[in-house]
Amino acid sequence: MTTYGGFEPVFCTIIPPHVLDTLSKAEDRVLAGKARRTLERDAFERTHRRLTTVLGAPALAPPSGAAADKPSRTIYDARHKQDLPGKKVRGEGDKPGKDSTVNRAYAGLGATFDLFLKAYERNSINGEGLPLNATVHFDEEYNNAFWNGEQMVFGDGDGEIFLDFTIPVDVIGHELTHGVTQYTANLTYFGQPGALNESMSDVFGSLIKQYTLGQSAAEADWLIGAGLLAPRVTGTALRSMKAPGTAYDDDVLGKDPQPATMDDYVRTGRDNGGVHINSGIPNHAFYLAATALGGNAWEKAGKVWYSVLTGGELGSQASFSDFAKLTLAQARTLFGEGEELQAVTKAWEQVGVPTG
Prior knowledge:
Blueprint: E1 12-13, H1 17-24, H2 29-55, E2 73-77, E3 87-91, H3 100-120, E4 132-136, E5 145-147, E6 152-154, H4 169-183, H5 191-213, E7 223-224, E8 239-240, E9 249-250, E10 254-255, H6 271-274, H7 280-293, H8 301-310, H9 320-335, H10 339-351
Parallel strand pairs: 2-4, 4-6
Antiparallel strand pairs: 1-5, 2-3, 5-6, 7-8, 9-10
Helix pairs in contact: 1-2, 3-4, 3-5, 4-5, 5-7, 7-10, 8-9, 9-10
């Protein structure tokens, strides 16, 4: 997306600010210092994102002769500095090198491209073959990964709480899906529309992982960021779509605050009105619908969610209820009055989001 057409200046990170806030208060000064430096860097990048929106970002076009069914990937190495994009280390079609982080980033961009193209006939993030660029080894012990409106950026983690951010493919898919949302519904990054924005990224991040691994809805773990937490952390992932609020419970990191239903909806001014917290509710609705239908989650539930996100009827200020009503309408349009509509309807009922 060119960021000067009235779009929201969203800066999206996989590790929520409230998690880093907690970590920044740890008794271990070394851990706390790394978290604070990440927060400071995120604040800088967030400001840069806003300025880019005002001033205009360079338009990215597919290279001449690029195939419509193939990605156009470029991986850069920041060499632990903060200048973007860094030194080019791998282009589209280049053979894998010795740096496993570069190779994982390249593969993750490709996996995201493949899911959107093969499942939904979408040519890259913007639907028009947008080049997929990523920078690895960003900064020193940087505890995050983000989409800045133009490219992906990955930190190496501190090795104590977070590992390399290219390890979970769903983290890569999550961040790139923020780009899809940016080009389509452009959900405002605050409150319920912001939580929907985050949920869309978790949904398609999970689907990208499932598609890559060839997993059915029943076989999937429905975890976001599994493999990212270091061994010392008591937890399995950043979030759980199957059981929101259970992904981690750690002395240093705190407890996963996500609710699974509207009964526990969190009203807060932090985290842009709880966008990474209340996203657990629509996340859980998708999990319930997908597992009720069985088979490959990207084929039925995923198709409904994608159609709503990209169909043009979802407003930028949409509430959970607005989104839920549209999923029912799309399920009916795509599949009729059968099990798909019943599964989607029941899923929203179970999480307490009204659809009538």
